[in-house]
Amino acid sequence: MTDYVKMWENLGMDLKNHDALCQVLPTAFGDVYLSQQNRPQAMAFWDFVVSEIHGIRPSELIEAQKKGQKVFGTFCVYVPDEIVIAANGIVTGLCGGSQFWVPGGEKVLPKSTCPLIKASVGARLDRTCPFFRIADMYVGETTCDGKKKAWEILGQDVPMHIMDLPQMKRSKDIRKWTEEIADFAKVVEEFTGNKISAESLGQAIKTINNKRRALARMYEARKAENIPISGKDALLVMQIAFFDDPVRCAKTVNDLADELEKRIADGVSVFPKGTKRILLTGTPLAIPNWKLHHIIETSGAAVVCEEMCTGTRYFENLVDESKNTLEEQFEAISQRYMKTNCACFTPNAGRIDDIIRLAKEYKADGVIDASLKFCCLYDTEKYKVNAALKEAGIPVLSLETDYADADAEQLKTRIEAFIEMLG
Questions:
Q1: 317: left (phi > 0), else alpha (psi -120 to 50), else beta?
Q2: pLDDT for the residue numbered 423
Q3: Run of H or E residues at 58
Q4: Which residues, at least 6 apart from 84, have a Cβ–Cβ distance to it below 8 Å?
Q5: Interacting residues of 69 by C-beta distance below 8 A, sequence separation 6+
Q6: What are the residue ranges in the chain where pLDDT is below 50?
Q7: Any residues with CB less than 8 A from the CB of 374 and at least 6 apart, and which?
Q8: Helical segments of 277-407, H only
Q9: pLDDT for position 359
């Protein structure tokens, strides 16, 4: 492993606390991932990335900054990567998925804030995440009240741009989101010093669409009767996709999809025949939050799909590549992103339709609807999701959890009972 200590020192990180995090992660990754049997060989790439998760990509970002590029840190799938890339900027995800960061967030946030927000704030304030140290600008959005107030804290010492996401999906709301995208483009142009043209935005749209197509290929393989990849491995690919270079991401995922398609043709599966198939829905699972997948897949079932931001919401629907003016391209981007069905919208029948559609497409035997504690949006929406699934004849289990392992045994007991009921 390359020695990144000097880089971390230059970023002003708390090396003592960061060392504590680095000591925990390899053990957790080994227990969850390296204990698996018959994994696709292509997963070696993602294993390597995790082994140097705070080194290899951060060092690439720093080198790009030395050449004049700006790095934009984002927290949500609604922020359009295409705009940043069109201005020769770089996008990196900033979501926090570790309990390690939660206490740092609780220094300035109520304990009744969702762990994802607390972890993100803690990762920045405690100086233990290089991505938060590297980003030249943070880009937030108004998907929930907790995030809106967190942006005020994070924006105290780093430039912060906030995109005002409409809470409904009427025609005027889509027009409003188009205006937000156009305004964001102006901010990015000014911050990078680079003009966005129809040509550069058109190429950026194709670049991100190609990444989406690659991820869709991986998910398509998970529909097979003989499941060629574990849900845990697919989740890891999705989590790293938020941080990786989009061109490289498309290539590595396509290479993985090639292997998965061959496995399907050869009858190779990572699960025994007859293993129950689970669709997981709810709040996103930011890296390194692997708890639910691990419990499900060590309890006799397989996760075959995630209706989540770290799942289908990230790659479904492409931006129309045929538009030739900036105004048309901004509108096409708006149309694509507004098709994503987050629980922040009202009414939100689209998400329920997605869950039922995906459950059928992936031949799920049951659905687990999981929300993070204090995420009132997804927790409240469980009522309608459960009612719709029961009406459709699809078994469903509702769960609430956080990043800590204290509830792991309780979750395992409930999940095992649900899987047994499916049998």
A1: left
A2: 84
A3: helix 56-66
A4: 72, 90, 91, 188
A5: 88, 89, 90, 192
A6: none
A7: 112, 113, 114, 115, 146
A8: 291-297, 312-315, 326-337, 349-361, 376-391
A9: 98
Contact 364, 311 (CB under 8 A): no
Cα–Cα distance measured from residue 147 to residue 141, given in angstroms and rounded to the nearest whole number? 8
pLDDT digits (tens, 9 = 90+) for 368-391: 999 999 999 999 999 999 999 999
Token readout for 378 is 């997804």
Close Cβ partners of 286 (under 8 Å, ≥ 6 residues apart) = 93, 95, 96, 97, 116, 119, 239, 310
DSSP 8-state symbol, 33: I
Instruction: DSSP for 191-250, please give it.
Output: HHT----HHHHHHHHHHHHHHHHHHHHHHHHTTSSS--S-HHHHHHHHHHHTTS-HHHHH
- The number of folded domains in the chain is 1
Reported as type and span, the H/E element at residue 180 is: helix 171-192
Instruction: Pull the structure tokens for residue 4.
Output: 């990144």
Cα(146)–Cα(138) distance, integer angstroms: 16
Alpha-carbon distance of 92 to 74, in angstroms, equals 6
Q: In whole angstroms, what separates CA 115 from the centre of its chain? A: 15
Which of helix, strand or coil describes residue 139? strand
Beta partners for 279? 305, 367
- CB-neighbour burial class of residue 23 (10 A; exposed 0-12, middle 13-18, buried 19+): exposed
Q: Which domain holds residue 15?
A: 5-422
Is residue 397 within 8 Å of residue 417, measured between CB atoms? no
8 Å CB contact between 182 and 334: no
Contact by Cβ (8 Å): 151, 120: no
Quote the pLDDT of residue 1: 55
Can you give the pLDDT at residue 2? Answer: 76
- At 409 the pLDDT is 97
